[in-house]
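Lab notebook: predicted structure, single chain.

Context: the supervisor wants predicted structures on file for every construct in the current expression panel, including those that have not yet been purified. This is the next one on the list. No modifications to the sequence; it matches the entry in the shared construct table.
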Amino acid sequence: MSTFSSIIAGFGGQGSLLMGKIMAYAGMLEGKEVSWCPSYGPEMRGGTANVNVIISDENVGSPVVTKDADCIVALNQPSLDKFVGVVKEGGSLVVNADLCTVGTVKDGVKVYAVPANKIATDNFGGSKLANLVMLGAVVYATGAIDIAGLDETFAHVFEGGKAKFIPNNKKAFELGYEYAKNL
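Prediction complete. Output recorded below exactly as produced.
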């Protein structure tokens, strides 16, 4: 991979920005050039939120992904509808199957429909970790980051009082990774 570009989108509060932050941090720890460019409405929770993440072996010229994304991640239907056309032929479309219905996609696009809310609810009693389930699926689908560095990445992203969440976050990630692997 010389350059990986993605858009991760959902409602505010679904964790799309955190997913992007984890991916960007992992890329940075691998010595790559990274860009993390969030966009969200003023209401944040419940409004729309998306993040452009680029991980590259080269300098990143623009942090904004407007076409030919290697991966689109849609946590809800409005996000899928907005960004489905941006994924390039041969790219990956990873959707939360509990909240999205995939229609027509470009030839060669690999679709990963992951019931992230159900997986999170079945394993953690609620859908709060659906974003980490989706992240696991994204990493399997794209190989954008090396899972060997996940422990270090989580330690940096979930510092201090948030460190107590690492075990469940890792488990949710692993469940999503395995789900995508078995598709």
